[in-house]
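for the writeup, i need someone to sanity check this before i put it in the appendix. the sequnce is what the collaborator sent (i think, or maybe the updated version? ugh). structure was predicted straight from it, no edits. if anything looks off just tell me and ill rerun, i have time this weekend
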Amino acid sequence: MSNHYDIVIAGSGFTGAITALALHNCGLTVCLIEKGKHPRFAIGESSTPVADMILRSLSAQYDLPWLYDFSRYGSWQQSHPEIVCGIKRGFSYFKHHPGKPFSTDAGHSNELLVAASENDIMSDTNWLRADFDAFLVSKVKAYHIDYLDCTEITSATRSNRQWLFNINGPGKIPSIRSSFFIDATGSGLLADKLFSVKSSAENFLTNSFAVFSHFEHLPRWTTLLQESNIPMQDYPYDPDDSALHHVLDEGWVWALRFNNNRTSWGFALNGNDASFQKMNTLEIWNRMRNTYPDIDHILKRGSLSPQPGRIIQTGRLQRKLEKCFGDGWLAMPHTIGFVDPLFSTGIAYSLAGIERIVQMLSENRNFDERLYDQLKEYEHITFEELKLIDMLVAGCYKTMKHFPLFTAWSMLYFTFTILYEQRRLKHQPVTYFLEAGNHEVQKIVQTTYKDLLKLTAQRTISTKDADQFTNTVRERIAPFNTAGLLDLLSKNMYYHTVAVL
């Protein structure tokens, strides 16, 4: 191993590993440091068309041809069937009411299915992060990038534009040096420890926490629908082959299936509900099962996976660093902040950050003053993106009890996601994730959020109120709505939102 590098990266999840590989292929010397060891448990996540586009772009731009195969379910299965993933055809939402079995009608008033791909081969994927992250680290080693696991950075000092990191690990290397440092750890702990940069949940509109695990052999949701004689013939895809959401009054459930009979299952719950604060993890889990009979029906048929082998409760999910960069360092977007997993923004948001950061650093190899202005712009962009995601997610939590409002509000996210996809496909410049820098996008979201707050503050919300709000959203998104969202004839089933990939 060398003792001096151009860049040291902390954190070997997919973000840190892909960044290391791309920077290495730009001719920079890189050392990747991991506090833990692979394979390791990580919560299941799902990709999106945007994430897949960026994977293909990174593959081509940084000479990582094998990365392309992971951008679609079909090519993933053909090239690496041993790396576990799941098929994700789109986003599916089913509204449950306390104490009642799931029910709906011919108009799908309690269902929403939004296609993200046209067939299984072209589909997005659910990532079993333990497998995929471990594979990427094997690639880091194959490219002869120095990699240290079970290694902790204990302190950092900077002088003469050089970092000295003291490290503690199984090797006999007490310290390493670099010109630049990237925090890809995915939390604010290391930034606080090394740079005294704090992380907090201040100023977030969303307030949520999660209770989750991985399970084996959970029955398919469609099996339960069949047992309940609920028709599915006009579904655009099998909802079990998607990012499946069960919408509850208190929050929502995610169910991401993998093709080894494992499912990532979790409750994301409203942290403003004071009753949860008096309950422990198991009490919360059992309360949700006891409140929703179909949720209980699914969970009682499965068993906990050996990894992690327990139910995990998070603290508040929302967090944001007070700074994104400093002298000789920056944090990746997933380290800078997080809102909530509701719209599966995590993978795409991280990959967009990789794209931006690798280009910025490869063009400023001296890491001199010219980089400062770009880092300042990077910070501004990242904070604006987090604010937009936060408002989009917060609006959904406001509408959990009122599914027609939930359906209407969520169309803002889908509209601006498709807009962002189309700009990329047309090779138009994209600076902000989800077009967060677009003044008209910001105006529509902020104005509609204010309308939503007034509506949900009412003691009762009538059908007329919901219809009027839906019409308002329909009119506001009309200039960007190329996919027929909120079309009265769609009946909440969307077949044709897919960008041509």
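The chain has a mean pLDDT of 96. Residues 59 and 66 are 7 Å apart (CA to CA).
thx in advance!!
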